[in-house]
Specification:
Blueprint lengths: L1 H21 L1 E9 L5 E8 L3 E3 L4 E10 L4 E7 L3 E10 L8 E9 L4 E4 L15 E7 L1 H21 L3
Parallel strand pairs: 1-9
Antiparallel strand pairs: 1-5, 2-4, 2-6, 3-4, 6-7, 7-8
C-alpha cells in the first residue's frame, strides 16, 4: 500500500512538472515578410520575464526573427492580455530611430490588431487550440517608420520653448 502511495505521488508530481508544456493554449506566429531582422517579444499577464534587448516586462518569449522567416510562441493556459511587439531600426525619415509596434488580441474583432504601444487593452482569445498569424511586410516597415517619425516630431514640437 505504501509503495502504491509513493508511486501515485511520483506520477502526480511528474504530471504537474510536465503541465506547462502540456497546457499550450494559444499559438501566435509572427510572419516576418520583410527584408530585415525584427525583434519580436510576446507578452502577457502571468509571464514574469523581462526582455534585456527591448527592456520589456511580462515577457513570455523574445526572439530575433531573420528576414523572410517566421517564429511562433505558444501562450500557456491562463496567460491573459496577450500581445506581440516588434522592434527594429526605422527607415526613411525615421532612420536612426527605434520603431516599436504592438499587436494585441482584440475581442471585438477576434484577431490580433496593431495597437501602437498597447494603447488598447490586450484581450485574451476564448478557448484553447487557437492559432493566429501576425504578418509584417516591408510596406508595414515604411508606414510604421513614418508614423514613428511623425510622433517624435509632434512630441518635439510640443516641447519647444
Amino acid at each position: 500500500m505504501q509503495m502504491q502511495t509513493k508511486l501515485t505521488a511520483t506520477l502526480l508530481a511528474a504530471a504537474v512538472l510536465a503541465a506547462p508544456s502540456a497546457l499550450a493554449c494559444v499559438t501566435v506566429k509572427v510572419d516576418n515578410q520583410t527584408d530585415r531582422q525584427i525583434r519580436a517579444v510576446w507578452t502577457a499577464a502571468g509571464c514574469l520575464g523581462a526582455d534585456k534587448k527591448s527592456k520589456v516586462a511580462f515577457k513570455c518569449a523574445g526572439h530575433d526573427i531573420p528576414a523572410g522567416t517566421s517564429r511562433s510562441h505558444d501562450f500557456d493556459w491562463g496567460k491573459s492580455g496577450q500581445a506581440v511587439t516588434f522592434y527594429y531600426d526605422g527607415v526613411g525619415k525615421a532612420e536612426g530611430m527605434k520603431v516599436q509596434v504592438s499587436f494585441s488580441y482584440q475581442s471585438s474583432s477576434g484577431r490580433y490588431e496593431k495597437t501602437w504601444a498597447l494603447r488598447k487593452i490586450p484581450g485574451t482569445p476564448g478557448g484553447c487550440g487557437r492559432h493566429f498569424t501576425v504578418p509584417y511586410t516591408n510596406e508595414d516597415v515604411r508606414a510604421d517608420s513614418d508614423s514613428t517619425f511623425l510622433a517624435v516630431a509632434n512630441e518635439t514640437k510640443h516641447h519647444e520653448w
